[in-house]
């Protein structure tokens, strides 16, 4: 939840949701959306994200770059 608060306060963050798999309660899915690639790249180098990743409690399974369909 600390990561959600810190990420949600980043400039360029549009969405940050945390979901738990119904099939596997140990699987957590985080949906993040940023205004543009520059904001996402800034997020990737943010201290709060690096601190979280350095805890070694998560394994990144998939990442997707998408385009909004309007």
Description:
By secondary structure, the protein is an alpha+beta fold. Helices cover 31% and strands 21% of the residues. Strands 1-2 form a two-stranded antiparallel ribbon. A hairpin with a 7-residue loop joins strand 1 and strand 2 (28-34). The protein is globular, with a radius of gyration of 13 Å. The model has no long low-confidence stretch (mean pLDDT 91).
Give the tags.
70 residues; globular; two-stranded antiparallel sheet; alpha+beta
Number of helices: 3
Number of strands: 2
- Amount of beta strand: 15-25%
Structural Rg: 13 Å
Helix content: 25-40%
Order of helices and strands: HEEHH
Largest sheet: 2 strands, antiparallel
Decide which structural class fits the backbone: alpha+beta
In quaternary terms, these chains amount to single chain
Q: Could you report the average pLDDT, rounded to the nearest whole number?
A: 91
Tell me the strand order in the biggest sheet.
Answer: 1-2
- Cα(first) to Cα(last) distance is 31 Å
Concise account of the structure shown:
The chain has 70 residues and is an alpha+beta fold. It is built from 3 helices and 2 strands. A hairpin with a 7-residue loop joins strand 1 (13-20) and strand 2 (28-34).
Helices and strands in order, then pairings?
Elements lengths: L1 H7 L4 E8 L7 E7 L2 H8 L2 H7 L17
Antiparallel strand pairs: 1-2
């Amino acid at each position: 939840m600390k990561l959600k608060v810190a990420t949600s306060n980043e400039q360029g963050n549009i969405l940050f949701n945390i979901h738990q798999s119904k099939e596997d309660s140990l699987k957590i899915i985080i949906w993040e959306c940023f205004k543009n690639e520059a904001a996402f790249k800034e997020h990737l180098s943010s201290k709060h994200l690096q601190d979280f990743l350095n805890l070694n409690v998560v394994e990144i399974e998939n990442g997707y770059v998408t385009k909004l369909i309007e």
